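Instructor's aside before we start: the two examples that follow are unrelated to each other. I chose them only because their records fit on one page, so don't look for a connection. First example below.
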Amino acid sequence: MSAQIIDGKGIAAEIKRELKGEVDNLGKQGITPGLAVILVGNDSASQVYVRNKSTACERVGIYSETRMLPQETTTQELISLIEELNQRRDIHGILVQLPLPPPIDKKLIFTSLSPMKDVDGLSPVSLGMILWGNPTFTPCTPAGILELLQRLGIDPQGKRAVVVGRSRLVGLPLANLLALKRKGGNATVTLCHSLTPGLASITKGADILIAALGRPLFIRGEMIKKGAVVIDVGINRVEDPSTKKRYRLVGDVEFESACKIASAITPVPGGVGPMTVAMLLKNTVQAARWSCLEK
């Protein structure tokens, strides 16, 4: 069999078109959704991500501003900026770009975010509301994965879902979201990682397999159940002298062998990545919509 290649880029473009209409309607009420992105240090990959987010905002009509801080920024200086943005009525969402340089205390940073502006969904309040079964802002990558499944007509209810990777950005919130007793959930979820004993036997039992552990080509075809849906979250650089950049991007899944077993699979790039950005925009629009209710 040959797997359906899930077009995350195309689905993300569809979502952005829908959001453009919502932004236009908010504009008629005198509200322009606003997103502030904070970038600390000079990480080149982060700079590219931030530029891409700014461009995406512009295309749907969201106001965005990027606040760039030096590598030497202290935890308290960053908190002071966040507190300033928390108070601004024209800023509905705040995103702190990761990774943050040491010794900045990430826990203090995300605790200082207003829960109503935490559009990246990574504050203790946002993550805690998932456990309560009443998510406010869902972390963007898990939200993008759930949106992909929904738009493809793949219902997790009653299925076995295996999430490989336990980060607070993806694995932990996604596992809990899939287990929630609600539409888009009700799966039987196993959360594991690269050191889980007998990992291959666990992944081979998954109807829906999500690889989010950050290790290139870790999940191979023989680890996948025939007909499973495979969602590859990984974005890894591997050396490739045959390319102009001397490297290529690969996921956590060995794509070629997985395609022969899975019924559907996300490519890297062009799968989950575009959905993550689309969900950031969607959360920002939602935050702006909630600001209408506060007036």
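Example two begins here.
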Amino acid sequence: MDSRLLKGVPVRDAVLEELRAKLTSAPRSPGLAVVLIGEDPASQVYVRHKEKGCEKLGLHHVTHRLPPTTSTDEALALVADLNNDPAIDGILVQLPLPSGIDQDRVLQAVDPAKDVDGFHPDNLGRLVSGRPRFVPCTPKGILRLLAHYHISTVGRRVAVVGRSVIVGRPLALLLNLKGEGGDATVTMCHSRTPDLAGALKDCDLIIAAMGVPRALGPDVIPEGSVVIDVGINRITDPTHPKGTRLVGDADSEALMGHAAALTPVPGGVGPMTIAMLLENTCEAMARNEGWHGLG
């Protein structure tokens, strides 16, 4: 069996091209502010990708780079300023934050109407009720990826492996809602699931979001299933020019020829997350301006 690769880059490019065309009639440029605290290497890379995406769309964007010694009060003061800035429609606090900062306080200080990541309790509550304001970017990107490749969720048995508030929980909720991208029967697994293979054996769509490199292989993934790999893990690889390489939570090499389809790492879910962040920012601007040009 040949495994189909579900590449995110062409889907991202299509989303951005559609947004770019619609924004030509927008009342103003959407504005995105990124708060980057500390020197986490992965965060630095993610933020650069987000900046490039903003530039492609012509979005107004600003990145506030703060040292790892920043206090919670200093972070809160910056968020308050951004909440009050009319040119900023979306605020993204890049995670993880340094250990000395109260992450929950900072995230909850973001105006829910500017919380384009969808992490604020107000927005998560709206998601639970089936009336989302902003859908968290990675779950939204996964559903858009599935739709692009004509992989329906309706009536499917889906396993979400991971229970983070960023991916696992909101994705399980979305898959369970009525309508397009939902209507699935969802099993949520995690680090304390005693028999992972048994929990997955009847599922034909697996979302891997554990944060553990190459944790899911043919021993637990049912043959012929679709695997969406959210993980981005850097491992040592002496054969690579840089001495390291990126791998997902699924063992993609072992799953080739076993899974019906899977997303590559990198180049799968990651590009979709950034595209959905930009789309959420555009939606925030449209809501603020009473503009209906996004459809």
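The two ends are 40 Å apart (CA to CA).
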